[in-house]
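Entry 14. Two folds queued back to back today. First construct below, sequence then C-alpha coordinates.
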Amino acid sequence: DAFTASVCNLNPGARGHVRIRSARPEDAPCIQPNYLSTDEDRKVAADSLRLTRRIAAMPALARYRPQELKPGMQYCSDEDLARLAGDIGTTIFHPVGTCRMGAAGDAGAVVDARLRVHGIAALRVADASVMPTITSGNTNAPTLMIAERAAAWIVAAPG
Protein backbone atom coordinates (compact mmCIF):
# COMPACT_ATOMS: atom_id res chain seq x y z
CA ASP A 1 0.00 0.00 0.00
CA ALA A 2 1.12 3.52 -0.72
CA PHE A 3 -0.18 7.02 -1.03
CA THR A 4 0.94 10.08 -2.89
CA ALA A 5 0.92 13.57 -1.47
CA SER A 6 1.06 16.40 -3.93
CA VAL A 7 1.61 20.08 -3.28
CA CYS A 8 0.89 22.96 -5.60
CA ASN A 9 1.54 26.70 -5.37
CA LEU A 10 -1.86 28.16 -6.25
CA ASN A 11 -0.52 31.69 -6.52
CA PRO A 12 2.94 31.58 -8.11
CA GLY A 13 4.85 34.80 -8.59
CA ALA A 14 6.99 33.52 -11.46
CA ARG A 15 6.08 34.67 -14.94
CA GLY A 16 7.08 32.78 -18.04
CA HIS A 17 6.55 33.43 -21.71
CA VAL A 18 5.40 31.92 -24.98
CA ARG A 19 7.14 33.21 -28.10
CA ILE A 20 7.05 32.33 -31.75
CA ARG A 21 10.16 30.50 -32.89
CA SER A 22 9.92 31.50 -36.54
CA ALA A 23 7.53 32.76 -39.21
CA ARG A 24 6.74 29.15 -40.13
CA PRO A 25 3.38 28.14 -38.59
CA GLU A 26 4.45 24.48 -38.36
CA ASP A 27 7.30 25.36 -35.98
CA ALA A 28 6.36 24.85 -32.33
CA PRO A 29 6.48 27.95 -30.13
CA CYS A 30 9.17 28.50 -27.53
CA ILE A 31 7.52 27.95 -24.14
CA GLN A 32 9.43 29.00 -21.01
CA PRO A 33 7.29 28.65 -17.86
CA ASN A 34 10.04 29.83 -15.45
CA TYR A 35 8.79 27.61 -12.63
CA LEU A 36 10.38 28.36 -9.23
CA SER A 37 12.21 31.39 -10.60
CA THR A 38 11.29 33.67 -7.68
CA ASP A 39 12.56 33.49 -4.11
CA GLU A 40 8.97 33.38 -2.82
CA ASP A 41 8.02 30.46 -5.10
CA ARG A 42 11.09 28.51 -3.94
CA LYS A 43 10.18 29.23 -0.29
CA VAL A 44 6.60 28.05 -0.87
CA ALA A 45 7.93 24.84 -2.46
CA ALA A 46 10.26 24.10 0.46
CA ASP A 47 7.63 24.96 3.09
CA SER A 48 5.03 22.81 1.28
CA LEU A 49 7.30 19.77 1.36
CA ARG A 50 7.92 20.32 5.07
CA LEU A 51 4.17 20.58 5.73
CA THR A 52 3.59 17.36 3.80
CA ARG A 53 6.18 15.65 6.00
CA ARG A 54 4.41 16.89 9.14
CA ILE A 55 1.06 15.60 7.85
CA ALA A 56 2.56 12.19 7.00
CA ALA A 57 3.96 11.99 10.55
CA MET A 58 0.53 12.49 12.17
CA PRO A 59 -0.80 9.71 14.42
CA ALA A 60 -3.82 9.18 12.14
CA LEU A 61 -1.48 7.91 9.41
CA ALA A 62 0.86 5.91 11.67
CA ARG A 63 -0.79 2.55 10.89
CA TYR A 64 0.19 3.03 7.22
CA ARG A 65 3.86 3.58 8.18
CA PRO A 66 4.41 6.26 5.52
CA GLN A 67 7.93 6.52 4.18
CA GLU A 68 9.11 9.33 1.98
CA LEU A 69 10.35 8.20 -1.42
CA LYS A 70 11.02 11.61 -2.95
CA PRO A 71 12.64 14.01 -2.40
CA GLY A 72 14.05 12.03 0.57
CA MET A 73 14.21 12.82 4.28
CA GLN A 74 17.93 13.58 4.06
CA TYR A 75 17.08 16.86 2.31
CA CYS A 76 16.06 19.60 4.73
CA SER A 77 17.48 22.96 3.64
CA ASP A 78 15.39 25.49 1.74
CA GLU A 79 17.84 25.29 -1.15
CA ASP A 80 17.76 21.48 -1.40
CA LEU A 81 13.98 21.25 -1.07
CA ALA A 82 13.34 23.98 -3.66
CA ARG A 83 15.80 22.39 -6.11
CA LEU A 84 14.32 18.93 -5.62
CA ALA A 85 10.77 20.28 -5.93
CA GLY A 86 11.83 21.50 -9.36
CA ASP A 87 13.36 18.12 -10.19
CA ILE A 88 10.32 16.05 -9.21
CA GLY A 89 7.61 18.62 -9.92
CA THR A 90 5.29 18.63 -12.86
CA THR A 91 2.88 21.09 -14.37
CA ILE A 92 -0.82 20.95 -13.59
CA PHE A 93 -1.44 22.19 -17.14
CA HIS A 94 -3.25 25.39 -16.21
CA PRO A 95 -1.19 28.16 -17.80
CA VAL A 96 -2.78 31.59 -18.01
CA GLY A 97 -1.86 35.12 -18.99
CA THR A 98 -0.21 34.60 -22.38
CA CYS A 99 -2.80 36.91 -24.00
CA ARG A 100 -3.70 38.77 -20.87
CA MET A 101 -6.47 41.28 -20.46
CA GLY A 102 -5.63 44.90 -19.81
CA ALA A 103 -5.89 48.49 -20.97
CA ALA A 104 -4.79 49.43 -24.48
CA GLY A 105 -1.88 51.42 -23.04
CA ASP A 106 -0.51 48.38 -21.18
CA ALA A 107 2.28 46.97 -23.35
CA GLY A 108 1.76 43.49 -21.88
CA ALA A 109 -1.99 43.36 -22.51
CA VAL A 110 -3.38 41.66 -25.61
CA VAL A 111 -7.15 42.00 -25.12
CA ASP A 112 -9.50 44.54 -23.57
CA ALA A 113 -12.18 43.87 -20.94
CA ARG A 114 -14.51 42.53 -23.67
CA LEU A 115 -11.83 40.14 -24.97
CA ARG A 116 -11.19 42.14 -28.16
CA VAL A 117 -7.60 42.02 -29.40
CA HIS A 118 -6.07 45.50 -29.22
CA GLY A 119 -5.65 46.98 -32.69
CA ILE A 120 -7.37 44.17 -34.64
CA ALA A 121 -11.03 44.53 -35.54
CA ALA A 122 -13.43 41.60 -35.08
CA LEU A 123 -10.96 39.33 -33.28
CA ARG A 124 -11.41 38.10 -29.72
CA VAL A 125 -9.57 35.65 -27.51
CA ALA A 126 -11.79 33.63 -25.18
CA ASP A 127 -9.75 31.16 -23.15
CA ALA A 128 -7.58 30.99 -20.02
CA SER A 129 -4.81 32.96 -21.71
CA VAL A 130 -6.71 36.21 -21.06
CA MET A 131 -6.56 35.84 -17.27
CA PRO A 132 -3.93 38.30 -16.01
CA THR A 133 -3.13 35.98 -13.09
CA ILE A 134 -4.07 32.40 -12.29
CA THR A 135 -7.06 31.63 -10.10
CA SER A 136 -6.47 29.75 -6.84
CA GLY A 137 -8.11 26.63 -8.15
CA ASN A 138 -8.80 24.77 -11.34
CA THR A 139 -9.03 27.09 -14.33
CA ASN A 140 -11.90 25.20 -15.98
CA ALA A 141 -14.83 27.07 -14.36
CA PRO A 142 -13.43 30.58 -14.93
CA THR A 143 -12.57 29.63 -18.52
CA LEU A 144 -16.16 28.52 -19.09
CA MET A 145 -17.34 31.86 -17.68
CA ILE A 146 -14.99 33.71 -20.04
CA ALA A 147 -16.37 31.71 -22.97
CA GLU A 148 -19.97 32.40 -21.96
CA ARG A 149 -19.30 36.14 -21.70
CA ALA A 150 -17.52 36.13 -25.07
CA ALA A 151 -20.42 34.30 -26.70
CA ALA A 152 -22.91 36.84 -25.32
CA TRP A 153 -20.80 39.77 -26.55
CA ILE A 154 -20.41 38.22 -30.00
CA VAL A 155 -24.15 37.53 -30.32
CA ALA A 156 -24.97 41.07 -29.17
CA ALA A 157 -22.43 42.73 -31.48
CA PRO A 158 -23.85 44.54 -34.51
CA GLY A 159 -23.43 42.90 -37.92
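Second construct, same run, same settings:
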Amino acid sequence: MTLIEIIGTPAFLKALGETAYAFSVGVLAAVVIGVPTGIMMGKSRLLDELLLPWVNIFLSAPLTALVPVLMVLFGFGMKSIIITTALFAIWIIILNARAGVMQINRSLVEMARCFGASPLDAFAKVYFWAALPEILSGVRIGVIRAVKGVIIGQLLISIVGFGALFELYSANFLMTHFWAVLIVLFAMAFSISELLAYLERRVSYYAAKR
Protein backbone atom coordinates (compact mmCIF):
# COMPACT_ATOMS: atom_id res chain seq x y z
CA MET A 1 0.00 0.00 0.00
CA THR A 2 1.41 3.39 -1.00
CA LEU A 3 1.67 6.48 1.17
CA ILE A 4 -1.14 8.18 -0.80
CA GLU A 5 -3.45 5.21 -0.26
CA ILE A 6 -2.73 5.12 3.47
CA ILE A 7 -3.36 8.82 4.06
CA GLY A 8 -6.61 8.61 2.13
CA THR A 9 -8.22 6.02 4.39
CA PRO A 10 -11.10 7.06 6.71
CA ALA A 11 -9.13 5.91 9.76
CA PHE A 12 -6.21 8.14 8.86
CA LEU A 13 -8.39 11.17 8.11
CA LYS A 14 -10.25 10.73 11.40
CA ALA A 15 -6.95 10.47 13.29
CA LEU A 16 -5.61 13.52 11.46
CA GLY A 17 -8.64 15.57 12.48
CA GLU A 18 -8.39 14.52 16.13
CA THR A 19 -4.68 15.22 16.28
CA ALA A 20 -4.93 18.55 14.46
CA TYR A 21 -7.69 19.71 16.81
CA ALA A 22 -5.81 18.83 20.00
CA PHE A 23 -2.58 20.27 18.62
CA SER A 24 -4.15 23.54 17.42
CA VAL A 25 -6.07 24.23 20.63
CA GLY A 26 -3.08 23.30 22.79
CA VAL A 27 -0.68 25.55 20.89
CA LEU A 28 -3.22 28.39 20.84
CA ALA A 29 -3.64 28.13 24.62
CA ALA A 30 0.14 28.09 25.09
CA VAL A 31 0.54 31.23 22.96
CA VAL A 32 -2.39 33.13 24.50
CA ILE A 33 -1.16 32.40 28.03
CA GLY A 34 2.58 32.24 27.43
CA VAL A 35 3.20 35.45 25.48
CA PRO A 36 1.51 37.85 27.96
CA THR A 37 3.11 35.99 30.88
CA GLY A 38 6.57 36.28 29.34
CA ILE A 39 6.08 39.96 28.56
CA MET A 40 4.92 40.68 32.11
CA MET A 41 7.92 38.79 33.50
CA GLY A 42 10.22 40.88 31.34
CA LYS A 43 8.57 44.08 32.59
CA SER A 44 8.29 43.23 36.29
CA ARG A 45 11.33 42.19 38.31
CA LEU A 46 9.16 40.93 41.16
CA LEU A 47 7.03 38.76 38.89
CA ASP A 48 10.15 37.52 37.15
CA GLU A 49 11.74 36.44 40.43
CA LEU A 50 8.54 34.66 41.45
CA LEU A 51 7.85 32.79 38.21
CA LEU A 52 11.23 32.23 36.54
CA PRO A 53 12.33 29.34 38.82
CA TRP A 54 9.05 27.52 38.16
CA VAL A 55 9.26 28.09 34.41
CA ASN A 56 12.80 26.69 34.35
CA ILE A 57 11.74 23.70 36.45
CA PHE A 58 8.87 22.79 34.13
CA LEU A 59 10.97 23.42 31.02
CA SER A 60 13.64 20.97 32.16
CA ALA A 61 11.34 18.47 33.89
CA PRO A 62 10.24 15.21 32.22
CA LEU A 63 6.69 16.37 31.51
CA THR A 64 5.61 12.86 30.57
CA ALA A 65 5.70 12.08 34.30
CA LEU A 66 2.95 14.67 34.85
CA VAL A 67 0.52 12.96 32.49
CA PRO A 68 -0.94 10.64 35.19
CA VAL A 69 -1.60 13.72 37.34
CA LEU A 70 -3.46 15.36 34.46
CA MET A 71 -5.48 12.19 33.96
CA VAL A 72 -6.58 12.29 37.60
CA LEU A 73 -7.42 16.01 37.48
CA PHE A 74 -9.04 16.27 34.05
CA GLY A 75 -10.02 12.75 33.07
CA PHE A 76 -9.15 10.60 30.08
CA GLY A 77 -10.62 12.74 27.31
CA MET A 78 -9.52 15.39 24.86
CA LYS A 79 -9.18 18.05 27.57
CA SER A 80 -6.21 16.24 29.14
CA ILE A 81 -4.55 15.79 25.74
CA ILE A 82 -4.93 19.50 24.97
CA ILE A 83 -3.49 20.48 28.36
CA THR A 84 -0.57 18.09 27.84
CA THR A 85 0.11 19.69 24.46
CA ALA A 86 0.00 23.18 25.95
CA LEU A 87 2.34 22.20 28.80
CA PHE A 88 4.95 20.97 26.36
CA ALA A 89 4.85 24.23 24.38
CA ILE A 90 4.24 27.03 26.86
CA TRP A 91 7.48 27.23 28.84
CA ILE A 92 9.81 28.05 25.96
CA ILE A 93 7.28 30.59 24.69
CA ILE A 94 7.30 32.32 28.08
CA LEU A 95 11.10 32.40 28.22
CA ASN A 96 11.49 33.78 24.70
CA ALA A 97 8.86 36.48 25.22
CA ARG A 98 10.60 37.43 28.46
CA ALA A 99 14.00 37.58 26.74
CA GLY A 100 12.58 39.73 23.95
CA VAL A 101 11.16 42.28 26.38
CA MET A 102 14.35 42.43 28.45
CA GLN A 103 16.33 43.36 25.32
CA ILE A 104 14.06 46.25 24.35
CA ASN A 105 15.69 49.67 24.20
CA ARG A 106 14.22 51.46 27.22
CA SER A 107 14.13 54.73 25.29
CA LEU A 108 11.22 53.29 23.30
CA VAL A 109 9.24 52.75 26.49
CA GLU A 110 10.12 56.19 27.85
CA MET A 111 9.12 57.81 24.56
CA ALA A 112 5.76 56.04 24.63
CA ARG A 113 5.16 57.26 28.18
CA CYS A 114 6.10 60.82 27.22
CA PHE A 115 3.43 60.71 24.52
CA GLY A 116 0.85 59.59 27.08
CA ALA A 117 0.71 55.87 26.31
CA SER A 118 -1.23 53.89 28.89
CA PRO A 119 0.22 50.62 30.27
CA LEU A 120 -2.06 48.71 27.89
CA ASP A 121 -0.91 50.83 24.93
CA ALA A 122 2.73 50.24 25.88
CA PHE A 123 2.05 46.51 26.17
CA ALA A 124 0.32 46.23 22.79
CA LYS A 125 2.28 48.79 20.74
CA VAL A 126 5.79 48.73 22.21
CA TYR A 127 6.61 45.59 24.16
CA PHE A 128 4.80 43.12 21.91
CA TRP A 129 6.08 44.43 18.58
CA ALA A 130 9.64 45.02 19.76
CA ALA A 131 9.81 41.51 21.21
CA LEU A 132 8.03 39.88 18.26
CA PRO A 133 11.11 38.20 16.67
CA GLU A 134 11.90 36.41 19.94
CA ILE A 135 8.22 35.60 20.48
CA LEU A 136 7.98 33.96 17.06
CA SER A 137 11.18 32.04 17.74
CA GLY A 138 9.69 30.74 20.98
CA VAL A 139 6.43 29.80 19.28
CA ARG A 140 8.36 27.94 16.57
CA ILE A 141 10.24 25.86 19.15
CA GLY A 142 7.05 25.45 21.17
CA VAL A 143 5.24 24.05 18.13
CA ILE A 144 7.91 21.37 17.75
CA ARG A 145 7.59 20.47 21.43
CA ALA A 146 3.79 20.47 21.10
CA VAL A 147 3.97 17.75 18.43
CA LYS A 148 5.71 15.56 21.00
CA GLY A 149 3.15 16.54 23.62
CA VAL A 150 0.07 15.72 21.56
CA ILE A 151 1.38 12.28 20.58
CA ILE A 152 2.36 11.46 24.16
CA GLY A 153 -1.09 12.56 25.28
CA GLN A 154 -2.79 10.40 22.67
CA LEU A 155 -0.69 7.39 23.60
CA LEU A 156 -0.93 7.65 27.38
CA ILE A 157 -4.22 9.39 28.12
CA SER A 158 -6.66 8.28 25.47
CA ILE A 159 -5.75 6.08 22.52
CA VAL A 160 -7.06 8.40 19.79
CA GLY A 161 -5.71 10.24 16.78
CA PHE A 162 -2.23 9.45 15.52
CA GLY A 163 -1.48 7.84 18.87
CA ALA A 164 -4.12 5.21 18.16
CA LEU A 165 -2.67 4.58 14.70
CA PHE A 166 0.85 4.23 16.08
CA GLU A 167 -0.44 1.76 18.66
CA LEU A 168 -2.44 -0.22 16.07
CA TYR A 169 0.23 -0.35 13.39
CA SER A 170 3.11 -1.23 15.73
CA ALA A 171 1.08 -3.96 17.45
CA ASN A 172 0.27 -5.55 14.07
CA PHE A 173 3.75 -4.97 12.58
CA LEU A 174 2.32 -2.78 9.82
CA MET A 175 5.51 -0.79 9.48
CA THR A 176 4.60 0.76 6.13
CA HIS A 177 1.51 2.27 7.70
CA PHE A 178 3.49 3.26 10.79
CA TRP A 179 6.09 5.15 8.75
CA ALA A 180 3.41 6.79 6.62
CA VAL A 181 1.84 8.32 9.72
CA LEU A 182 5.26 9.33 11.03
CA ILE A 183 6.20 11.00 7.73
CA VAL A 184 2.96 12.99 7.70
CA LEU A 185 3.55 14.04 11.31
CA PHE A 186 7.09 15.18 10.52
CA ALA A 187 5.86 17.02 7.43
CA MET A 188 3.23 18.88 9.45
CA ALA A 189 5.74 19.91 12.11
CA PHE A 190 8.31 20.95 9.51
CA SER A 191 5.80 22.99 7.51
CA ILE A 192 4.54 24.91 10.54
CA SER A 193 8.10 25.47 11.77
CA GLU A 194 9.22 26.82 8.39
CA LEU A 195 6.19 29.12 8.18
CA LEU A 196 6.99 30.57 11.59
CA ALA A 197 10.67 30.88 10.66
CA TYR A 198 9.63 32.84 7.56
CA LEU A 199 7.47 35.16 9.66
CA GLU A 200 10.34 35.53 12.12
CA ARG A 201 12.64 36.69 9.32
CA ARG A 202 10.00 39.07 7.99
CA VAL A 203 9.68 40.89 11.30
CA SER A 204 13.35 40.74 12.29
CA TYR A 205 13.78 44.43 11.43
CA TYR A 206 12.00 45.23 14.71
CA ALA A 207 15.08 43.97 16.53
CA ALA A 208 17.12 46.84 15.12
CA LYS A 209 14.66 49.36 16.56
CA ARG A 210 14.84 48.23 20.16
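Quick look at the second one. The two ends are 54 Å apart (CA to CA). The chain has a mean pLDDT of 83.
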